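Example record

One chain of 290 residues, shown exactly as stored in the release files.
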Amino acid sequence: MKFATWIQDGVEEAGILSGDLRSVHSFKSLNLGYQSLLDFIMRRTSADMEKLRAAEAKGGTPVSAVALEAPIPAPHHDIICLGLNYMDHAKEAGAFDITADEKREKSVYFSKRTVRALGPNGIIENHFDINGRLDYEAELAIIIGKDAKRVKRENAWDYIFGLCCFNDISGRDLQHAHKQWYFGKSLDTFTAYGPYIVTLDEFKTPLALKIQSRINGEVRQNGNTKALIFPPDFIIEELSAGMTLDAGTIIATGTPAGVGAAFTPHRCMQSGDVCEIEIEGCGVLRNTVG
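Predicted structure tokens for this chain:
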């Protein structure tokens, strides 16, 4: 199933898309008492999942009548991110990232402050007054479906609710000037994801999904999640060994080669550019730079 959040007549609602992606069914319209998608992920029951599966085959409110938001617009934690998690990106990053190297013996984690995430068709604030190089990063995000603590790798997939397209928008000048990633990746609107969360049961594991970014229709990144150095099941085992990953936690798993700052001269985003992130089975996340 594909879960989403949207605005209809000025009211935020959450629920599922129909199987043909032409309509939506809100929890409210199905008489399910969930206040948000985060609330659903944290409290869902098997019976309610079956009700949603039955509704998925039926028509509902046309998608054209709503404005999709990020699936969880206001995450209850900052996003957990992995850096340099594709070898080809780790190699190219040496050209612009002072923290980069080609050795990936240990995973690299950082957090991305997100007060409110940007959804599909949202406008990316350029922040050119404090940063010149505005970059894109196509990433697969995983959403934790139940509290994970000391999870073994062979059981880790059971803790994933679903997958989503994610754009780790980055201010490269800030990243370089401050010699760390947090500030340059946490500006307002620099977390974009969607257009929906697809439940893990729609995919085969281990994952081997095509992942791509496009700027104004031109392919910039073209990879596959099978090239992840540290895949989702490893990540969950490693992190949950020392921290609880509670339901609704969002983890962005890293980006393949082809980011704008790696080109000579750089090809970062400009005002008016349309950035698309597409992952096989997860739809297309499309945003425009303001």
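Notes: The chain has a mean pLDDT of 95.
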